[in-house]
């Protein structure tokens, strides 16, 4: 009888034990057991439920989708209850079967029936045993059984130990048992009785559960999902983690059971496991064959609309299918129909419904899809390639040709798969090697380390050209610390288009490895210089900027500017051009390119690529001195990176966000942990130099010039940080001027300009001019000659086009205001200082404003914003146009430039330019003063 009713063993503890927290690690758990990750809220709720039940009885319904962790939470509650001295009775529903009536109740009551009991309970228990075990009719009719079970459980709970009744999969029990347990749950209050049941959500809540308190169990958030993967499945490569997080969608069972990205032989089908298939799609085998065919083609081609899928499914079975074939799958909760396409209930359900499908049937489904898709399309050729088993040179050639179309459609992973399959289908070794090598090169760009090594080794087994072999050898060491690439000085000149392509890829792969080695970097630059016909090729420019960001700055920027028709440039090349411009010292051009890349990724719904682009946008804003926009970009990057499991981008964004905070406020920049820095280096190779230069600049913002001056001097002298330190020439000059080290600083600037020579970028030339003008303040006390030199340097700096560089104009205005104040030209000084304050406010440099306010007071500025002895104009609002007035009102409410722009349909930089004009007119230096200035009937 026990085997027939599948009795669960009794869990009971005779002796009371101290209270146990469900959130704390369980006693007896393995030391490396991660526990229930991301379920702290639910565990605390269950802990409170058990306390409530021991005091006066309670019931809870734990409701969640398959794989959400209901059974694990139930088990945690059972262990905690047993540890605190509660007696536990349990039962479990059986899905996919037809349990006999009252079998669930028998599981719960059986330990009580077979255990010792007092003489008073002998009669009721004997009657209950006859009903449940022998199948005798209830002595009092149908209403007798619920009251009898309730009396028995109440008597057990009053026998000395509070009682927990734990029901797993309540909705899979037999109907009479479900009704009786729901009846008991409504009457648990007033007794030391807890009833905890788990069930799956239904379209409408079962009537018998209506009104019972519930504890909904949703999916894990992205951060918790990533922690669970790291704890239970360590060592996965980054791309596999991203795919698992996307497919699992926060489902713990899917996170643990889904196979990581594999390179199995065709035919291709969504991955799953036996356990996951039984949880997410338990009744698939009982569906009609036409419905199963429809689910199969929907899983293989999720982007298809329903008529196309029905047409393909009809070709598998040879019978015409109509919309009624969808009904059984909808009733089973496997899919929903939105009027055009099928949507699986969970992303992992697609793999669950086809798990265990025979490869021949899967190939037939691929062939059916290829027959109904647009001829020559990427998807049609992909499905056709999965349906063939023998070599097919014609198909292989078409796959190789169409991979470029996949790249244009922002589907780089599909391009890798097409090339890999083309390598399988080509009969000639040279063709197989060419496709395998190109697949390895693309996989390397995408960060697919395992795929890169696999395809590179496969390419090496085929005949390759000299540069192709060098490239394949370099790719075999991807991700495992292999041998560095060969010395560029020994590379042969490319002969032919294929070898030229391999030369560009080899330069791209090699450039990061030689960036710190002057001799090998020069050899690589010389190799690239020998290809003048490719002067605007994005890979060449990126490799050149990586190996020699200072030595080839002007050449790189000229090449970036020479690229035309950016709408036709692949998005990866847009990012390479942006990186080249940023490394060469033109962050404004880089920002424009990265914004175009962001729009392209959004258009193609490639949100997982946004963290990388947003991080680079933040770096460009940071290089431009815009603290507000850079902090906003880093925050967006960190949020999205955590959502997609890209821990390296998240670590870099958090470190840079802390840096921006220090630059804004002049506070201390907290050093990152060793683990964070190691992860961040995988995202931004120069993160150490960026953080070092930024930290030194934060010292300048804080007014700690004594520490900032030597730090920036050493960073400019260090080859490893020299390129990043070129963005800090003006803070370097400010620190030198404050420390009376202007002559030494001018010598450093002269040396930098001489080293750059003809390769000096225009932006760096502007920084040099502004830095010299800042340092010229020390010449004011050198008589008329010094005054003339100062005036000449200042005029030379103001002659530059600073409209796009508020981070350079603001310190120049500040230096001018100080100089005019020392000459006692107070009115002009206040004007320059207000302009400086407006610029720094637009940039989010909060630490500067207090010091500028002190300079304004020294120049005669009153606390209310007026100058001594001057009458105030009539009305503050009259000084602004309607558009300026609206922007000032919104900014005064605390809205950021981006938020103001979204309301008015303007770009954030346009809003910043408006505020740059508004601040001096109103005589304010901070956004917080705008509301008061506009409220005041008199202008400042």
From TrEMBL:
SMART domains for this protein: HTH_LUXR
Span of domain HTH luxR-type: 873-938
GO cellular component, one term: cytoplasm
Xref: CDD domains: LuxR_C_like
A single MF term (Gene Ontology): ATP binding
Any single biological process term in GO: regulation of DNA-templated transcription
SUPFAM superfamilies referenced in this protein's UniProt entry, alphabetically: C-terminal effector domain of the bipartite response regulators, P-loop containing nucleoside triphosphate hydrolases
Keywords linked to the UniProt accession: ATP-binding, Nucleotide-binding
A matching Pfam family: GerE
Name recorded for this polypeptide: Transcriptional regulator
Species this chain originates from: Streptomyces corchorusii (Streptomyces chibaensis)
